[in-house]
Each structure stands twice: as C-alpha cells, then as structure tokens.
TrEMBL record:
Cited HAMAP family: NADHX_dehydratase
NCBIfam families, per database record: yjeF_cterm
Family named by the database record: Belongs to the NnrD/CARKD family.
Residues given in the record as (6S)-NADPHX binding sites: G106, N160, K161, A162, E163, F164, E165, R166, D220
Documented EC number(s): 4.2.1.93
One of the GO biological process terms: metabolite repair
Limits of the YjeF C-terminal domain: 6-295
InterPro entries given in the database record: Carbohydrate_kinase_pred_CS, CARKD
Name of the protein in question: ATP-dependent (S)-NAD(P)H-hydrate dehydratase
Pfam families (alphabetical): Carb_kinase
Record's keyword terms, sorted: ATP-binding, Lyase, NAD, NADP, Nucleotide-binding, Phosphoprotein
Catalytic activity, as annotated: (6S)-NADPHX + ATP = ADP + phosphate + NADPH + H(+); (6S)-NADHX + ATP = ADP + phosphate + NADH + H(+)
GO molecular function: ATP binding; ATP-dependent NAD(P)H-hydrate dehydratase activity
Amino acid sequence: MDNNSMIKLVQSCIPPLDGNSHKGQAGRIGVIGGSMEYTGAPFFAGISALKVGADLVHIFCTSPAATVIKSYSPDLIVHPLLDQPNAVNEISPWLDRLHAIVVGPGLGRETKTFEIVSELIKTIKRRNIPLIVDADALFLITHNLELIKDFQSPVILTPNKAEFERLCDKLNGQSGLNKLGKNIIVLKKGSTDEVYCAISNAQWKSNVGGSGRRCGGQGDILSGSIAIFLHWTLSNVDKLNLTYSMDKTIIAASLSCFAASLLVRTCNEEAFKIKGRSMLATDMIEYIHTSFQELYGQ
C-alpha cells in the first residue's frame, strides 16, 4: 500500500472535532516511566500524545520525578507511585481507564523498578490493553521475552538501531522477529523507519522527512504519538475497508506506527529548517499541530 493510501486510512480514523464527544473519548493514554535521572522522556511522550489529540494523559513515575514532571506542564496527570511499596496494587486500578499504555520512557534500569514493571505488563496483558514498549522497557523485554508472549492486544516495540540489534541477537537473527507473536509489531527507528510483523501485508518502510539531527527525546515523542493513533485506529478498525483477508487489528497497529512516524519525521524536518544543529525535541513538539494539519487535514 502506498503512502497516500495509508494516509487516507489514517484520516478515516481520526475523530472529528464536531462537539459530539465527551472528555476522554478521544483518548486516555498512560505512560509508565520517569525516574530521578530521567524526567524529560515521560514528559515528551505524554505531551506529544496530548498535542496529537489525546484528551487525558496519566504518567506513573517514581516519587523523585513527579514534581519535576508536573513543573513541565499542568496538563499531565502525574502519579508518584512507581517506587511505592504497593506500586502494582496502587497503579493497577488506573489501568482499566486507559486506551493505550506506553512503558519505558525515562524508566531507568533499577532492579526493583523492573520487577514492578514486569508485574504491570502482566496485568496489562490480562486486561487486553494495547501496549507500546520503548527505551529501557525494551531492555527489560529483550531479556525476558516471556513478558509479551500470548498478548491478545497489540504490542508495539520501538527499538533504535542498537536496541534492534540486541533484540535480533536474542532471537538468533532478524528472521526470529516473526516468532514473537501474531500481535507483536516491531517499529525499527532510524534514517528509514521500518515495521516488522508476522503479516507481510502490514509491513512498510518510510524515509519521508526527518533530518540529520539525532537529539534525545525524539523516540519519546514517537511513542506518545503512536499511543493515541493506536487508540484511534483500533476504535475505527471497521472503517479501514481492507480488500484483502487479514487481521485488521494488526493492520490498525501498523497504521498507527505509520501515522506517528510520518508525523514525527515531518516535525523533525520542519523544526530542523529553523533550528538546524540547535534543534531539540522541544522544538519538534511545537510543530505537531501544523504538521498534523499538513498531513491529515484536521
């Protein structure tokens, strides 16, 4: 399927701003991440989801990160629960409210945090909530692939080049990606973004837009954007009008990756025109609205 056809499918899934929906209907997104050292990553993921069109974003982070993240934006709902003694029990009731969850931005690699996140992923699996796995959560998953085994809801892994190579090494080669599971999609980030999954018709490559600037935070913007597009495509899966027989859920997940990739790469391109070598992730966020309108017309 060519880019124009995929863009039209994305457009068919975007909820109209016609005044007929209530708060939360356009998307309630969760971000699990944020530690003492890393507070920017969960902010970038959360604020990007909001600016793309989510109504509410909840960030579940450690206590030292909470006040800092709150200071970045009053629009984010921040829960300092990830390092609490009963973290899993305190976070779990919130999960059922969410349409998609991003795990990993700013997570860090503390053993205790990984133990808590592992239990949360198991809970997310039982509740069939779509999941996006990024950053340090990819490190966790790569060393414990059982965590994403038998997911009935879509799971999107978003590795960069180094993370992709570690994952392939764990799977004894790139061909092993197809064995991750039918609902697992891998979006490899780079100069060309590329999707791998068990269904060949859902795979694609894109090098549209972008620039040579590789500042931190771009992957977090991508993961937050994927989360809200994933909610929209899954909610409108019957509108896709696909002419071939295949799992529409996987097509919807792949389409969300395409939509977010194209948007973020366009933001990168536009911000780079103005800022050049000085461009930061915060500069890219400022172009979400205009890039969205340019691509999707809403």
